[in-house]
Amino acid sequence: MMAQKQNYIEWMLLADRHSSKTNFELSDERRERLRILVAAAHARGIEVGVDVPLSLKQQHALNLLPSPGRQSHNEEQVRARVRWLRSCGFDHLGTELGTTEFTRGLHAAEMVRLLNITQEELGPQKVLVKNHCSTNQYADGFTDPRPSHSGVLNFNYLNYFADPKIVSMPHTVQAYSLSDPAPTYGNADFSDLRNWTSFLLQQGRPVVFYPETAYWVNYDISVPLFLAPTYASDRVEDADSLDAMSGTVPLLGQLNFESGWQWGYWLANSAQALVAWRRESLQSAFLRLLRFMPQKPRVALAQLLVEFAAEQRRLLVKGLRRGGVQTPPAPGVGPGSATAMAYIQGSEGLSDFASLAARYLGEGAPQPDRVHFMELWREVPSSSLRLLQAIQGGSAVTDAFLGTDRLRWQRQSWFQEHLRPLLAETNATFAELARRFERIPAPGKAFQDLAVSARMLSLRCSQVLALYEYSAMCRGKETEFCQSRLTLSRSVLSAAQALAEERAEHMGLEALDRGTRVLEWSEPIPTAYSYGYLWAAHTLFYWRRDQEMVEQQIADVCFGAINDPVELGLAGGGGPWARWAQSVMQSALSNRLWHVELAKCLGPPTEPKLGAAKDMVML
Predict the structure, then answer these.
(1) Which of 39, 113, 479, 530 has its CA 20 to 30 A from that of 175?
(2) pLDDT tens by residue, 535-553
């Protein structure tokens, strides 16, 4: 941090699990531990904040309002917890508004009141509120204050009506700048968030920009994908956009949401830290960050990374082929289906189910929508989704229960005409860019990390192209071409696994305590996840899931689910009754007599053994 001139860090505190027999979350022992960490940061000139949502329940988050109730009871809880946090020595307090990223929770007026109470308790210290990019959440009783807008306020912007000292934190996600197409979380782009940021600055409100420069769950760094070049480009472009906003006050600064430094992401995180202080062109930023290298390879590498960023934006973000040919969205699928990013990203069972459910219900999934493998060979939605589709009424009922053979043929035609050329060009482009690393004589750990990461991206593009070709063109066929697609995808997966194992030896993991589980599947304590931080990337879980689904013609969207909705969605991971209800539902949906496809989405009992667990296969 200090090498990048960063001066503020924010931690996210976890709550006790419901099964815990001790009260550690607000204990004296925890306070003393936190004081030690805060003092260490202060000794180095770094301010420390802590993210504690008001009522957010997901992912074991510690919150200020654990038991919402009467107004007086709410106020008592919030004041007590803010005082405890202040006693730990934190400089500022970050918070969030909804019960999840997608739900509002408390009534808007009560939320404003509690925000004011929080700021009152903190006195001169700052409250920083995340303005999420999720959509279709409204603050009843509050009107959008922008002259160019009318109607009910976006719930994510609610803190505008609280104490004006409260800091707003516009939050972008994934590999999209404020100006890019951004088919995620129900958006087409982040233009509304950009407009809101400009409005806040014009009104003289304090603003900290809060971009995301790696997305751990599914999307990129866990695959892993080498998206550091385009993330760096995003941050440079965002710096230009923010500086161009005419406001009565300047931006207070930036806070980067980062999910790791492995697989080249140190480059993107460092670029974000750099442009937070001074505007740079992308090439200048790379040259400055690579100043430890000799001049000739340094210039060559910076130029290569600039080209990487341009091609990633063109193919992955915009879906543009050479000659400016724009890929259209797939029939019946959202705009994300027109971008290569939607296909090389990672996805597990629960996220696939959420993606399809969001599509059928007209909502926005937290990842770009795509044509799933099964949709190129299956004539109707999976049984676990038919009811959701039928709820829409009208023609959706007919589609849900009478089949969509016509739509399947349309998607196969679209694949041949549009998606296959896009994926083929993506594969060829990143293969050539990865090979160019071999022409740069630059030994060293940092350079090698970038070179291997670029190679991994190339391999992922190759696997995805082969698997989609097989899915669209080889249903019921055993031709030489079809066999070659499977052979290629298997060999690519094998090569990628060798790279993943080789890189694990260069990540400094040997310095960790033996009990630290970073690469392994483990119990979800204290986090909401049953696997270590680098488990998915190290095992290439998302690659193996895709391979298994295609080779075994698996149509169960919940196949290979690794996230537990009870752990993720309920406070403290749910209590005994929640676990009992989950177990009953799992038994009712999947037993010796029948199996309903939705069952696997209720949470994995053990680590998925892809390629061996035939009981997971649903034809």
Answers:
(1) 530
(2) 999 999 999 999 999 999 9
pLDDT tier at 615, thresholds 50, 70, 90: very low
The predicted pLDDT at position 19 comes to: 61
pLDDT in tens, 381-440: 555 555 555 555 544 444 544 455 788 899 999 999 999 999 999 999 999 999 999 999
Say if residue 616's pLDDT is above 90: no
Tracing tokens 């879980």 back to the chain, one arrives at: 541
> Token pair for residue 202?
């014009």
- In 3D space, the residue among 556, 587, 591 whose CA is nearest the CA of residue 350 turns out to be 556
Q: List residues bridging with 138 in a β-sheet.
A: 154
Q: CA-CA distance, 247 to 202, in Å (whole number)? A: 4
Length of the chain: 619
Integer CA distances (angstroms), 590 to 378, 454, 505, 602, in order: 22, 42, 41, 11
DSSP for 360-374, please give it.
HHT---SS-----GG
Distances (CA, A) of 145 to 157, 161, 576: 10, 9, 45
Give the pLDDT mean for 156-182.
97
- Residue 529: predicted pLDDT: 86
Residue in 172, 173, 169, 185 with CA at minimum distance from that of residue 130? 169
Amino acid making up residue 90: F
- Look-up: residue for tokens 């009565």? 248
CA distances from 65 to 71, 82, 117 (A): 11, 10, 12
Under a CB-based contact definition with an 8 Å cutoff, are residues 153 and 103 in contact? no
pLDDT digits (tens, 9 = 90+) for 302-322: 999 999 999 999 999 999 999
Tokens 């599947």 correspond to: 521
How far is CA 512 from each of CA 239, 449, 507, 519, 538, rounded to the nearest angstrom?
36, 20, 11, 12, 17
Most distant CA pair in the chain: distance in Å?
72
User: What DSSP assignment string belongs to 562-573?
Assistant: ---HHHHHSGGG
State yes or no: pLDDT of 619 exceeds 50: no
Q: Residue 156: which of 234, 102, 217, 90 has the closest Cα?
A: 102
Eight-class DSSP state of 593: S
Strand runs (DSSP E) across 132-205, as ranges? 138-143, 152-154, 167-170
pTM greater than 0.85: yes
- Which long-range contacts link 402-411 to residues 24+ away (Cβ below 8 Å)? 403/379, 404/332, 404/379, 404/380, 405/379, 407/331, 407/332, 408/375, 408/376, 408/377, 408/378, 408/379, 410/331, 410/332, 411/330, 411/331, 411/332, 411/333, 411/371, 411/375, 411/376
